[in-house]
Amino acid sequence: MGGRAWTVPSLAKRLRVSRRGLEILCRNLASARLLRKRGLLYRSGRFAGTALNARHKAFRGAYLDLLRGQWDDWSCLTDSVRSGRPVEHEAPDDPKYRRQFSWAMHQRSLEVAPQVAAQVNLKGVKTLLDLGGGPGTYALAFLAKNPDLTATVCDRAPALEVAKEIAAPLKHGRRLSYLPLDFMSRKIPGRYDVIWYSNVLHIYSPAENQRLFRKLASVLAPGGRLIIQDAFLLDREGLYPQEASLFAVTMLLFTEGGNTYTASETVRWLHEAGYAKVRRITLRKGTEDWEGGLIEARL
Ligand SMILES: C[S@@+](CC[C@H](N)C(=O)[O-])C[C@H]1O[C@@H](n2cnc3c(N)ncnc32)[C@H](O)[C@@H]1O
Prior knowledge:
By secondary structure, the protein is α/β, with parallel strands linked by helices. It is 39% helix and 18% strand. The strands form two sheets. Strands 6-5-4-7-8-10-9 form a seven-stranded mixed beta sheet, with helices on both faces. The protein has a three-stranded antiparallel beta sheet with strand order 1-3-2. Helix 4 crosses helix 6 and helix 6 (95-109) crosses helix 9 (157-167).
């Protein structure tokens, strides 16, 4: 729709689609506040005119492609519920898929990462490992905020190619290094003051995460911290926030053993893995990646 206002007949003519179909679609998009309606005229709302506008620099096309690519898979949900198995999908190592997914992750967290980074105290921290950091959006946000910090983003090689492209024009991007590695099956080299484990917990089963927590203890420098960001469930029954429960359905469809977890069971796993001081960090409302905030663990 670009920047201008359209009547349904003029837009239908331009798009060569049915007036009836378009009228019902536009009305619904307006009721969802994606379009604005005044009389017979429709125009894009702010979000539609930027994030959903292929001609705008803020277009989130990769994230839309990711959702579009999952469209048919959702109709296999009954099979996944019955079998407990994911739908057939691209292998996580497929380079094309991984590249596209990494851009989608960047578009997803571009705005929230600096807000989260502003609330994590990294005073005195010299080295940070962004484990499963994908496009490096979080590592870059920490680097922008902390001039004495150097960071390493660890992920599969095609994800790191995207991270390099994003970091290249940024001055603080020079303090980012890259570690192509399957961190679950391989030894993780180096020692870090902070390990940032964001949006990866939900991909893996409880046993896999517990094993990883034990392994990470030897990757932390003395006094180091493991900080976890994920869609934690917060109530006693493990139902809410609803967004976190719903996200487990996505994990059922697309991962072998992933799920969303309660903050309290994650804290317990960390204690069992030998971390002594474990605490939740609550972020300011509206500035979090997920409502559940962060969990920080020290050895
Ligand atoms: C959902 S994305 C999260 C990206 C980023 N941490 C964030 O919070 O936006 C999960 C990332 O973990 C990476 N990942 C998952 N398992 C991995 C493994 N075993 N080895 C390397 N990377 C892995 C994926 O490639 C992907 O980039």
